[in-house]
Amino acid sequence: MMALPLQLFGSNSDLGMILNLLWIVMFFVVMFYGNALQVWRWTKQIEAALFKLNRMSEESREILTKTIKDLGKPAEDPSKAVASMLEFVTIEPVSLDPAGVIQRLDHVLDVRKSRYEDAVARMAPKAGKDEASNLEGTIEAASAVYFIFKVVRHYYILGKKTKNMYVVLQVSMQLHEIMRIAKAYFEALKAFSLGKPIGDGLGPLVTARMLDVSIKNGVKPIIQEDVAKEVTVMEVELDGRKVLLIRAKGPGSRVGKPGEAIERIVEEHKGDISRIIMVDAAGKLEGETTGDIVEGVGAAIGDPGPEKYKIEEVAVKYKIPVDAILVKEAIEEAVMPMKKEITDAADKVSERVREIIKERTEPGSTVIVAGIGNTVGVG
Amino acid sequence: MSDSGQPPVGKGVTGGRIVAVMIGLLCLLVGMSLLIQGWQTNDQISVILGLFVFSLFFSFMGAAWRVPAQNPIFRTVTVAKCSKCDYTEVRDFQRGDYIYKVLGKCKECSGDVYVKTIYAIPLQKTQLPAS
Fold first, then answer.
1. pTM
2. Contact A265, A226 (CB under 8 A)
3. Which of A9, A19, A208 has the CB atom closest to B100's CB atom?
4. Which of A50, A184, A254, B118 has its CA 20 to 30 A from that of A270?
């Protein structure tokens, strides 16, 4: 059985000699050009990913433009305004002097938000309030996809220009993760454009479920709109306690300023709040299960900083304990359409919040339950 | 296994996999021949070349067995319920649906039918509706 290959490839045959020679040549090629070959292979991988990212970015732009045309009925083609919004940048405040950096960041974020609102109002004048909010979310998701494409392209060109293998290597090593995030934002864009609930909407969904239970039990809620920007507070009575359910206004894509709302409400009550319970989605580690519920303490909010700061400040000022209930989700699950495991978890969390209120607060006390997250598709 | 507990899409015998297995087996045969012959004749080049060709066997077999990464395809459904009776309706998500939206009156008890939940379910390739 081995005779034929031995005849063909053995070192005594002609082909064997050629192979031996080829092997020696290959040895020197690998010795002197091994790195170049490896860089070439990595570059090809990045090129393939860039092609996909470019396609995703172009498709995002098309979906965004089409959604603006469908919902906003603009008089002129919004393509130019869309291109301008995709390039929009937000410059973080200087942190060399950290005093007041939170207030400065808060101000920058407020200005950014108003610029987005103005841009959508101009691009889509006929869009309703919730549709306009969804368009803001769509723009943000499209910007994220475009930004990822630009960064990968930058390192690809830089690597080729400088022939620096470490520049190429860095991108190549992270390519899988980069593509995962880009695909997640691409899915998020479709969800925002259609108004589908996303994984991050868990917090508002929990407060909606709690409100639903109260109404079914015959409680008439007192609803206060715009306590802080785009935040609604619903006052209900639950097991003899006054429960203030705080969440961003749905069903458009909004996150609001829940920190500011909590701060105002605590000040209004002169600190007479027995507990603040915060519900949010939390990033899961690989191996953990989507929809798992974990409990802890501290302000459960993933904002850039200002909202969390306000909650912590007011909680410290009046010594109010802050509980956190988190539902595990992968980063991409938080921005993609909500999975069944997450909606199921919302029912369990609302039950758990009720138990916590019974266990840790006295009848007659006031409790804040804050559902943190994006309200797209959650009314 | 995917998140839904179902096997990943793309498993099965394909032309590419058969070719990879055949090349792999050829590499195994040639690699072993060179290795044995090099060993017997004390020819180091044949031994090293044999090892190299033999290692290709694992590369090709690995490629044949690897399940290609698939992007899960999701279908979003809207679950509507009656506020009074057990009436439940599950349908595809439509633009404008949102959780707790009142859709109309119940056909069975004239209670309010509202959207109880909206969620995405992963689809297998075979479950994709024909376009």
1. 0.80
2. no
3. A208
4. A254
